[in-house]
DNA sequence: ACGGAGCATGGTA
DNA sequence: GTACCATGCTCCG
């Protein structure tokens, strides 16, 4: 850029027409003129210009003032000086530079002819380009990216759009302005400028290395080329092919060149960061543009690509969705400019040991150097930490087409600790054209992606249709993406079409293999609380591979988590917490609350329809209830407690806890198994794997002293003790009522069944119990029959209730169930009478089910069953409450097994 | 027998 | 119906 400086006029008068001051002997430079020269200003004007106040000072009364769509600031858009001070929004309107940067919006400038932005070393191009360039740039051309900032942006307002565009890390001054000016300049002038440009670049601080320029030719300089590329150019030849090339590292010429029409250009411009907003960004954003024209592609290759199809449009799924953080992460150098190229969610294969990362064809052809031989060429890629990796960029012939892959990515993937479902991003770092590989973890990515998708989809997608972002599990898991969203919070991706397209269809396996299993597990838990059958519907229970799942005919309803219980009179009720005051309000059990509920909505209890009303529940009562409510919390607690225990025990405890929490290990355990143990792994010592699948094989006997059994026993004991203590203390009355004094049952049960007693009502929190000391009271354990025997049973065989498991189960049950006991008792009675043991009350009650409710219910049922065993023979041994549909699960299962059929 | 390289297959858009 | 691409499968070292 510096080279570009040329005195605009021989006049000694300041170039500013409204200033008649004389220039100093060493006139200061201002904006770049269309001729490529820099305006020479007097000191005063130059200072004003440097401060970005030129238009404010001299063009205040001129036309062309517009308002920033984001901040409302007035911005002059009508002169060459201000050309870089704003960004044009695709949807119309402008953003001031500040907002543009802030939002990373692609610059409006994208509309500028690339040629202007950068002078390529090849002047000729400009000719072609100029004309063409404009149309392309401005047109709706193939390049999706540029077309709409909206793509990147959230569906909402433009200002929010994040520019995926190249991110200017630094704002340098000087050069940019020049560039900007140039951009503004008319195409006809382009040529001229272009010619000058190289020099400027070279001189400029950002000037690309000779290497870059020559070899790559691209480096930043050529927006125009890209455009023109189609037309001609042999120029890039060096880039083109070949393996002969050393690791491609530096420049990713192609990309720059072709693609994006502007990308390169952009970067070029960026080379010099403008102190002011940069137009450059705009261009960056469009890198994608270039992708497309098949012509370009061919050009690059120097040979026509077989596919030719290319229209160049990258699928939205590959659109880079860089956040500022991503960009910053990538650019260690604050002065560097990052041009996001594309991203890809890692498939199981990509993340596998094979070390091959399949590249989207269009992306590969657009942003990576052209390769004519299958062997491809080594490509140097820098990760976000600055570490360089060399991958083999190659392709395989495939159906008359090519499948591009990066080989040798395993070390890098591992280094980044990436897994299937995570997203790797590719961007170009300017100056230098280095290819930078970043990543986003699935958990984080999902959220951002979702946002993006909503934006990107060009309106296509939006929430609602899609599956949950989170790869794995969610997509099909539940029909209500919303739920997932809420329940999971940031972790869970919002449903998107895009996602579906990305992972959705193709990633069934991915889901399964996906690493995020843990997250999935969490999501299940979290989601459970929110899912319930739609009103007037009863969930169906489906048994899949030994596990029972709730299946909703219609999309489950997302409701506010509540706690189900039974009041003293035996009436079923539920407790809901106000969003505002956090007080718990008593509600009818059949009420389905919205996810956001406040006292003001408490139409069932006018006296407590205000946050100012006192809470009915005492702290103690609440304590008893709460534990169940928050599965997530309980889990955490559980985890914390477990830490104190030995490793072996952990597994068993987890399992138990899960069982206890869920009421049936069904869902959770299932998910866990899926996550951690797609199958029983030989060698794995966890309580799950230790046991033969489906309860087959040798069973643990009560006298078994293996680690697992000991752990289980201990756990149960602890649970029991805990329960007893609490019960005795808090619910002495309840205990009295019960006929079995030995049992601590506090619950006010109608049912005399032992289970009930043992189950105890709910006050106890499994976690808490666990955390507490473990005392043994085998006697008690034995004495108490627990509803959960089946669950707890080491052998996982309901039949063997007599064994240890039962005892332990009972303990877990008790904790879990707690308050629900009452409810359960009632249920039991109902069941017994009706004979319909299958479905729990909770299930049957559409609105009622909060997580707790479900859980409790489930537990209770079991308990009741167990208790009842005698009474009610026909009970499901295990009941899991899966928020998701059985269908989903069924799909997942196969996946785990492995690939496609 | 094992692992890697490359091709083929099949699902999805 | 075509193209893309994830993964499986086979062959070779």
TrEMBL record:
The keyword Metal-binding applies. One of its GO terms (biological process) is regulation of DNA-templated transcription. It comes from the Eukaryota. Residues 342-443 form the TF-B3 domain. InterPro entries: B3_DNA-bd, DNA-bd_pseudobarrel_sf, Zfn_VAL1-3_N, Znf_CW. Residues 726-736 have a biased composition (Basic and acidic residues). One of its GO terms (molecular function) is DNA binding. Its main location: nucleus. It is found in: Nucleus. CDD domains: B3_DNA. Residues 260-314, 446-474, 722-854 are annotated as: Disordered. Keywords: DNA-binding, Metal-binding, Nucleus, Transcription, Transcription regulation, Zinc, Zinc-finger. Transmembrane segments: none annotated. Residues 569-619 form the CW-type domain. GO terms for cellular component: nucleus. Residues 277-299, 755-765, 827-848 have a biased composition (Polar residues). This is CW-type domain-containing protein.
